[in-house]
Amino acid sequence: MSETNTSKQTMQFEAEVSQLLNIVINSLYTDREIFVRELISNASDALEKVRRLQLTDKDNIADPELPLEIRIRVDDKANTFEISDTGVGMTRDEAVRNLGTIAHSGSREFIRALGEDGLDAKDLIGQFGVGFYSAFMVAKKVTVHTRAADPDASPIVWSSTGAGSFEVRESERFPRGTTVTIDLKESEQRFADADEIKTLIKRFSNFVPFPISVGDEQVNTVKPLWTKGASEIGDDELTEFYRFVANAHDEPIYHLQFNADAPLAIRSLLFVPESNLEQFGFARMEHGVSLYCRHVLIQSQAEDLLPDYFRFVRGVVDSEDLPLNISRETMQDSALVAKLRRVLTKRLIKFLAEKADEDADRYGEFFDTFGMFIKEGVASDFDHRNELAKLLRYESSATKPGETTSLGQYVERMPDEQQAIYYISGPNRDAIEAGPYLEALQERGFEVIHCFEGVDDFVFNNLREFDGKPLVSADSADLKLPDDDKKEGESGEQTEQEEDEALDERAAGDLAAWVKNALGEEVGEVKVSKRLVRSPTALVNPDEFMTTGMKRVMQQFDRGGAMPVAQMVLEINPRHAIIKRVDALRRQDKDSGLAKEAARLLLANAQIAAGLIVDPKALMERSTRILEAALGAE
Ligand code: ADP
Ligand code: MG
C-alpha cells in the first residue's frame, strides 16, 4: 500500500501501556491463546456498532453493502495470523487514542491489581483480559489497517512491535472495517494453523452473533442461545455462553433462564458469577446485562435494566417489545424499560430466594461473596426492601460460628414474650461475645444477630422492621426489655439475692452522678444499668440514627477519638464488684484520685468493648497509674 511520508508519524505509547506491554510480552503466561478471543471480541463490538448505525443513521455508513462478518486467515509459511471485520473501524485519531492509551477498564484494573502483594501477572491476565494488547503475547509485530464507517474518513495503518512506540500513516483505499495482522513469533507457530484456530473459536467465541470464517469455512453457530429451550442447552454451553457475555473466565454459580410473554415479551439468560472483585476493594462493578431486541444488541452493560445493586448479574435480556432505535438517553425514561426492570428485579429476587431454599450451603457461599449487594438493595430499594430482607444471612448468638440464619428463621425461634429482633455490631464473633451487650438478652433467652460489617447498622436502620417486628440494636440506650417494669416494681425471688449484693437504688444513683462528675464532658450521661449482668460497664447509644456502628465508621475517618462518646450513655452495673469497690473508694476519700482513674479506665474499656477507638497514650498512662496503686508502687 502506498503512503505519503508527510503523514507518517511515530508516537510513544502512554506510560501505562508500555508498562502493560512489558508485562504481557515478558510473562510466561500459558494461555496465550486468549488473544484470539480478545481480537474476535473487538471485531464483534465493531460490527455491533455498524448494526446500530444501520438502524439509526443508515445513510452515513461507508460501504453499506458489505456483509457484517469476521474473517480469519492464517499462513503457516509466512507465520501470520490475520483477522478482518467489516465493523465501524477507526479514524486516525481514534486509532491513536484507542490503541495507544488504556481505554479498556480491564487493563487498568489489571495494572492496579499487580500493585497488590502476592498477585501474579500470569494469574491476572486470565482474570481481566488485557484486550487488544494481548496480541503482543504472540506477536513480533502487529499491523492494523482500518477504515472508519464515516464516509469521509481516510483509511490508515497503525503498527507496532510493542517496544515503546507505534507508527500511524495514511493508507490507500481500503474497505470499511479493520484488519489486524500479526507477524507471529517463531515460538507461536501454532496460531498459524487453521485447525488450531477453529478449535479455539469453538471454545471461546462460539456465541459471537456474526459469522466467523477461517479460510473459507464458517466456524461458529450464530443462533443466540437464549432463544433455545432450557432442555436444549447443555451445561458446557451455558458456561461458555456466560464467559462470552460476561467476558469472564470463571464458572457461574447460578443461572436463570427466564422467559415471559406477559406483561412483556422477555427471553433472558442471567448469571451470577463466581467471584466479586468489588469485595476486595476493586473499582465499582459495571452493570453486566446486555439488552437485545429480536437478537440485535441494543445496549451492552445496560444500566437501566436492573437496579444498581444487581450490577453483579451478567447475561442477556431480549425483548421484542422494545423499539429497535431506543438510545441510551431514551432508555432512562422509557416506561417500557422501567416495566422490564420491575419484572426482572422481582424475578431475580424470587430466584435467589428459591436457590436459598434449595441449597442453603451453596446460597451461603453466594451470600459471602455477594451479600454486600443484597444489603445495598435493602438499604436503597424501598419497593423491594421486604423481599430483599428475606435474602439476608447473619451469624447470631444461636448459630455456630461461621453458620448463618435468615431473619425469618430468627423470628420462628423467638419466644412469645420477645417483641423485637435484636442485633449487635462488632468486628467479629469473639469481640461481640466478650462485649457487654449480649448478656441482658441472653439472660432472657433472646437471640442476637451478629453484624460484622459497617453497613449492617445502616441496613437495619433503613429496614426498621421485619415481619412486623422492630429491629433493635442491643446497644441502644432504650432497650425496653419485656420484664424491665417487673424488675423495678416487685423484686422476684431470684433477684432478691442479687439485689442484696447490689448497691441500693440511692447509692447507685449517687455513684452514677459522681462518675459523671468525674468524667465530665467525656461522656454524655451516666446511668445505673438494668441490663448488665457480668460486665461492670457498657456504653449505650441514645441516638437511633447515629448508631454505634456508624460512629465507629466515622471515627475511622476522623482519627480524633473521644467525640462520638460525648453523646453516649455509660451504664454502670450496681451488682458488679468493681463498681461497688469504686463506690467504697470514693466515699472513703472525697477527692479520691484512684476512684477517678478507675472511672476513666472503665469508660475506656467500655469504649473498646463498643469497638470505638481509644487514645492509646492516655489509656496506657491511666492503666499505669492504676497498676501503681494496685501494686503499691506509687
Ligand atoms: P475494549 O475492547 O475492552 O474496549 P481493547 O483493548 O480490546 O479494549 O480495545 C481498545 C479499543 O480499540 C476498543 O474499545 C475500540 O475502540 C478499539 N478497537 C479495537 N479493535 C477494534 C476493531 N476491530 N474495530 C474497531 N475498533 C477497535
Ligand atoms: Mg476488547
In total, the number of strands is: 22
Into which percent range does the helicity of residues fall? 40-55%
CATH structural architecture of the largest domain: 2-Layer Sandwich
**How much of the residues is beta strand, in percent?**
15-25%
Output the CATH homologous superfamily of the largest domain. Answer: Histidine kinase-like ATPase, C-terminal domain
- With strands numbered from the N-terminus, the spatial order across the biggest sheet is 1-6-5-4-7-3-2-8-9
Class of the largest domain in CATH? Alpha Beta
Kindly, what is the distance between the CA atoms of the first and last residues, rounded to a whole number of angstroms? 94 Å
Mass-distribution shape: elongated
* Biggest sheet features: 9 strands, mixed
Number of domains: 3
Structural class: alpha+beta
SS element count, helices: 22
What is the gyration radius calculated from CA atoms?
A: 33 Å
Ligands: adenosine-5'-diphosphate, magnesium ion
| Mean pLDDT score | 87
Q: Which fold name is given in CATH as the topology of the largest domain?
A: Heat Shock Protein 90
* Low-confidence region ranges: 1-5, 486-497
